[in-house]
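Revision sheet: structure tokens.
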Amino acid sequence: MNNSHPGEFILLGFSDRPWMELPLFAVLLITYPMAMVGNVAIILVSRLDARLHSPMYFFLTNLSFLDMCYITSIVPQMLFNLGSARKTISYIGCVVQLYFFHLMGGTECLILAIMSFDRYVAICKPLHYTLIMNPRVCILLVSTVWLTGLTFAISEATATLQLPLCGLNKLDHLMCEIPVLIKAACGEKAANELMLSVVCIFILAVPLCLILASYACIGHAVFKVKSSEGRRKAFGTCSSHLIVVFLFYGPAISMYIQPPSSISRDQPKFMALFYGVVTPALNPFIYTLRNKDVKGALADLVRGVFTSK
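Predicted:
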């Protein structure tokens, strides 16, 4: 461990606005269990209901598991700090959070792109769907996505942790995050900023472009469908995914594409709350409320539980 690294960090969070801490604590206390229950429910119905044994729900199950890990990597520590006067995180805890949070974030960027590709094949090439999206291909895609997310987290977090902090032990944030640590570091950090921007182009911008291209093709194909019921079903399936994409990618791009030195003081706090808490909590409800198959499977699961009792 570098001597310039402190034993612990003080996370300032909203200490300059203490009136925000209690409402934020209450919101997180409600949001976290809600997100966990919602994502567990999607995983259960996707595994237990035979109607949902398809590539789309295989990817959705992975997304739900990701969201559970993603929100767990930051919210318990936020709740502890917001609910106590001691707003610290150990250096080892910060390192673990840094790797874990960025592993989940990087993987989610890519799995959303895989899900849009799945919808593209299902709508634009329906006759070849089962051939293209066979179980072996789906497992290979998900494995590649997880491996890429792991590579991103290890490379970026490790490079960031090499930066000297010159005795600094205060971070103006709610958690440990790469752009904030780069901004807080002393000495030459232009190479880290450039590396982060370049890597995030491949992790954020390229997948987003692929998603938009997929949905452009989907839109073109859907408008050719003569049946209004067919168009409505296609738009219903895709709109849920598009909502999730914009909720996640919007804040993430505004945070990671620009150089850390140009980030405003409060931007990391609100952006992290949005893509690290709000999006994982809303995802299960977005997919459930706009999907008849998932709603039907959930209703059957609940009915089965009460019937057995």
